[in-house]
Amino acid sequence: MSTILRTLRNLSRIGLKEYGHQMQYMGDTKAGTLVGVDRFGNKYFENMEEELPLRTRWVDYKEKEYDPSQLETGWHAWISYMVDTPPTADKILQTGVRAWELQEHRPNLTLSRSAFKTYSTVRPKYSAWTPVAAPR
């Protein structure tokens, strides 16, 4: 019964459109305050009122097929409870994009067809053994 009440309370607080969006993208509904948006378009929320401890911060990714490596370092530290202040309020983390950082996100290609594969022209030093049965 408490799940139904929580769902109805969140529906009344966030609206029908946002409720549908959260159910489609996150599989759960949450109501909270928008803390900030990063340069990739991900939205960061916080609700300190009625959530369980260490479950008060969450991300609404811009893309449906999200990659967790899309989190910027400052936002990752905030969402993981390493720091208490979000990057929007921290002077050190407001430095912007550094010269050595990529301007756009490069996805993690591990376990995909585009993953790095080694290529060598050298013959291997060992090979697999194939047993040969003697004719009878």
Task: Lay out the secondary structure.
Blueprint: H1 2-14, H2 16-25, E1 33-37, E2 43-46, E3 57-60, H3 73-79
Antiparallel strand pairs: 1-2, 2-3
Helix pairs in contact: 1-2
Keywords: Electron transport, Membrane, Mitochondrion, Mitochondrion inner membrane, Respiratory chain, Transport, Ubiquinone
InterPro entries: NDUFA12 (IPR007763)
Subcellular location: Mitochondrion inner membrane
Characterization of the model:
This protein has 136 residues and is an alpha+beta fold. The protein has two domains: 1-31, no CATH class; 37-124, no CATH class. Helices cover 22% and strands 10% of the residues. It is built from three helices and three strands. The protein has helices at residues 2-14, 16-25, 73-79; strands spanning 33-37, 43-46, 57-60. The protein has a three-stranded antiparallel sheet, with no helix packed on it. β1 (33-37) and β2 (43-46) form a beta hairpin. α1 (2-14) packs across α2 (16-25). The longest helix is centred in the N-terminal third of the chain and has 13 residues, at 2-14. The termini are far apart. The model has no long low-confidence stretch (mean pLDDT 77).
Précis, in short:
The chain is an alpha+beta fold and 136 residues long.
